């Protein structure tokens, strides 16, 4: 029987998807033999091979609400191939090649989003300094090299979900399990994602560091709390106020719980620091609550999701008030990635249900307002798309989203998404402001 990968050293979503192969209830197929290739008599010494193939077609009728013409359809492809070597229960070396390609998009691939022809997506060594992967009790491990990092709700640290190119980091991550606390200490540089072959390098202008801690709440076994500090330094940041060095510190907390029926997730982040010669004072909050009708045949789940990210209240003073989501989930607001989580109030009622065991339907609505009437709106990369001081209107617009996903088996899934964005008063007063239709068709194969 194939062996599960150690929980503290799982290196990617691909690896996580196949941790289940240790279960006797999971049938083996021809790919499973590559997930655990023994290297000698030590059961902890083995090689695991895996990968991913993703084919995605996207169509958008008015990109950027009409800034770049009409009727843009294109193909996005992503290929991942990984080798995960475990010398023992303490030492791991992980390598992953990634190729992300774009074809047919008007204007070519979006920088750091659509294309990186062939590069090292991950290349790190992991070592247990205390305890080991399969043991109970306290443990401490370090991972050094290029790696994907996802923390908590992924509102501040995500692997680039929704983007064709994942966002790796170069540096070190110390992970511990001590006296009931799960701890992560980070010292990283985001990897500069470039279009060509083996040109991705650590970004010399940006670095991030911090600590992230999680602990279960007493007398509430399903509930946990996160506490975190994340530092960020960008030597040449661009905001509506201008360009300058951004040294930002984020302090936050999160409460979350999941039971078979009810679940909730509340998070608050305060930000302070320096931008150029001025200061930073920003904040963000997120919420996600819902209930699943577990006894109903289609197991419908109703949710309310959203949050607030602060904007800049005065573009001419020395204080920058725009919240920086750092490295957010690319599809947090929508798969069309029209708008990023900056200077926004977000309300999103959601529903998902399962007409069959393999089919999931996910309709939702999204309503967006500006938090500050003097700041503008930004795209997913944090670039200003509409200035804010030419309109006092706050209502940006609303969006209808309907998604469907079908799991043929544990390897292959297909997904279909349709979105329509209705321009609100703010966009109508500051063009471009065309209504937007977006369609995506995706096939994903993990092995």
Describe, in plain words, how this protein is organized in 3D.
This protein is mostly beta strands and 447 residues long. It has a single domain, classed as Porin (Beta Barrel), CATH 2.40.160. Helices cover 2% and strands 53% of the residues. The protein contains two helices and 23 strands. It has an 18-stranded antiparallel β-barrel. The chain has a two-stranded antiparallel ribbon with strand order 19-20. A hairpin with an 8-residue loop joins strand 8 and strand 9. The longest helix has 5 residues, at 13-17. The radius of gyration is 22 Å and the shape is globular. The protein starts with 12 loop residues before the first helix and ends with a strand.
What is the secondary structure topology, with strand pairs?
Layout: H1 13-17, E1 37-38, E2 46-60, E3 72-86, E4 91-103, E5 116-130, E6 139-147, E7 169-178, E8 181-192, E9 201-202, E10 206-216, E11 223-239, E12 242-258, E13 262-275, E14 278-292, E15 301-309, E16 319-320, E17 344-352, E18 359-369, E19 377-378, E20 384-386, E21 395-407, E22 412-423, H2 425-429, E23 436-446
Parallel strand pairs: 14-16
Antiparallel strand pairs: 1-2, 2-3, 2-23, 3-4, 4-5, 5-6, 6-7, 7-8, 8-9, 8-10, 10-11, 11-12, 12-13, 13-14, 14-15, 15-17, 17-18, 18-21, 19-20, 21-22, 22-23
CATH topology: Porin
> What are the segments in which pLDDT stays under 50 over at least 5 consecutive residues?
1-10, 12-25
> Could you give the order of the helices and strands?
HEEEEEEEEEEEEEEEEEEEEEEHE
Quote the average pLDDT. Answer: 90
- Beta-strand content bin: over 45%
> Rg, please?
22 Å
CATH class: Mainly Beta
Number of domains: 1
First CA to last CA: what distance?
Answer: 16 Å
Overall 3D form: globular
Class based on secondary structure composition and strand pairing: mainly beta
CATH architecture classification: Beta Barrel
Tell me which oligomeric state these chains represent: single chain
Number of helices: 2
Number of strands: 23
Q: Helix amount, in percent?
A: under 10%
Biggest sheet record: 18 strands, antiparallel, barrel
């Amino acid at each position: 029987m194939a062996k599960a990968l150690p929980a503290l050293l799982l290196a990617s979503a691909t690896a996580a998807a196949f941790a289940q192969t240790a279960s006797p209830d999971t049938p083996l197929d021809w790919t499973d033999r590559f997930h655990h290739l023994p290297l000698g008599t030590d059961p902890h010494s083995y090689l695991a091979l895996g990968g991913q193939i993703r084919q995605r077609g996207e169509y958008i009728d008015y990109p950027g609400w009409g800034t770049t013409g009409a009727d843009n359809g294109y193909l996005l492809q992503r290929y991942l191939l990984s080798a995960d070597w475990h010398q023992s229960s303490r030492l791991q070396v992980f390598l992953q090649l990634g190729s992300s390609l774009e074809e047919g998009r008007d204007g070519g691939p979006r920088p750091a989003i659509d294309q990186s022809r062939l590069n090292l997506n991950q290349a790190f060594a992991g070592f247990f300094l205390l305890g080991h992967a399969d043991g109970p009790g306290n443990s401490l491990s370090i991972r050094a090299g290029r790696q994907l990092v996802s923390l908590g709700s992924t509102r501040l640290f995500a692997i680039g979900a929704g983007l064709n190119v994942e966002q790796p980091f170069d540096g070190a991550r110390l992970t511990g399990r001590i006296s009931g606390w799960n701890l992560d200490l980070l010292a990283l540089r985001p990897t500069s994602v470039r279009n060509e072959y083996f040109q991705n390098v650590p970004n010399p202008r940006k670095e991030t560091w911090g600590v992230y801690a999680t602990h279960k709440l007493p007398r509430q076994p399903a509930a946990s709390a996160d506490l975190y500090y994340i530092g960020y330094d960008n030597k040449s940041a661009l905001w509506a106020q201008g360009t300058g060095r951004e040294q930002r510190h984020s302090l936050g907390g999160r409460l979350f719980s999941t039971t078979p029926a009810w679940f909730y997730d509340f998070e608050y982040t305060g930000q302070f620091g320096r931008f150029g010669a001025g200061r930073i004072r920003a904040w963000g909050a997120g919420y996600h609550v819902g209930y699943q009708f577990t006894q109903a045949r289609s197991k419908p789940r109703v949710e309310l999701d959203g949050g607030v990210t602060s904007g800049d209240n005065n573009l001419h003073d020395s204080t920058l008030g725009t919240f920086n989501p750092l490295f957010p989930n690319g599809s947090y607001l929508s798969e069309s990635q029209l708008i990023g989580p900056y200077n926004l109030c977000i309300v999103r009622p959601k529903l998902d249900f399962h007409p069959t065991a393999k089919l999931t339907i996910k309709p939702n609505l999204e309503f967006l307002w500006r938090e500050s009437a003097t700041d503008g709106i930004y795209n997913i990369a944090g670039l200003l798309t509409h200035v804010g001081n030419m309109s006092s209107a706050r209502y940006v617009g609303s969006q209808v989203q309907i998604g469907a996903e079908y799991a043929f088996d544990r390897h292959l899934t297909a997904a279909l998404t349709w979105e329509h964005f209705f321009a609100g008063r703010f966009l109508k007063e500051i063009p471009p402001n065309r209504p937007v239709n977006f369609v995506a068709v995706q096939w994903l194969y993990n092995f």
